[in-house]
């Protein structure tokens, strides 16, 4: 298996106290390498070494607050548009089955990042 990925992003102040916006972009490539095998039912399985590209574009909005014990805590929300595309190969399991990359998806999330102690975050 070969996987290569790069991610870029830069934080920008929003004009709202302790709120940061970070646009992000990612480009990833994955190439899988399989041997042709026979399974327990004696079916020939050939994955034909598929490859796939992924592009992710989105951003993260973070609000940082100070806690009573001076340990930073951040709340964030993120939204990403993800597009995957790959070759038009098929998987062979005694006959050909066309592969279908997952296409386009929207990812969203909320989270918390906190320093729990001086040695653990």
From TrEMBL:
Chain ranges of the Autotransporter domain: 1-121
PROSITE patterns: AUTOTRANSPORTER
InterPro entries: Autotransporte_beta, Autotransporte_beta_dom_sf, OM_autotransptr_brl_dom
A GO cellular component annotation in the UniProt record: outer membrane
NCBIfam families: autotrans_barl
Protein name per Swiss-Prot or TrEMBL: Autotransporter domain-containing protein
Taxonomic placement: Bacteria, Pseudomonadati, Pseudomonadota, Alphaproteobacteria, Hyphomicrobiales
């Amino acid at each position: 298996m070969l996987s290569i990925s790069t991610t870029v992003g830069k934080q920008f102040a929003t004009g709202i106290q302790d709120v940061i916006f970070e646009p992000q972009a990612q480009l990833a490539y994955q190439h899988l390498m399989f041997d042709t095998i026979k399974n327990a039912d004696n079916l020939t399985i050939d994955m034909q070494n598929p490859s796939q590209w992924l592009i992710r574009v989105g951003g993260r909005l973070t609000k940082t607050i100070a806690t009573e014990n001076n340990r930073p805590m951040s709340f964030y929300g993120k939204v990403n548009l993800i597009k995957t595309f790959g070759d038009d190969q098929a998987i062979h399991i005694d006959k050909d089955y066309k592969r279908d990359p997952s296409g386009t998806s929207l990812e969203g999330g909320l989270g918390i990042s906190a320093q729990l102690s001086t040695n653990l975050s």
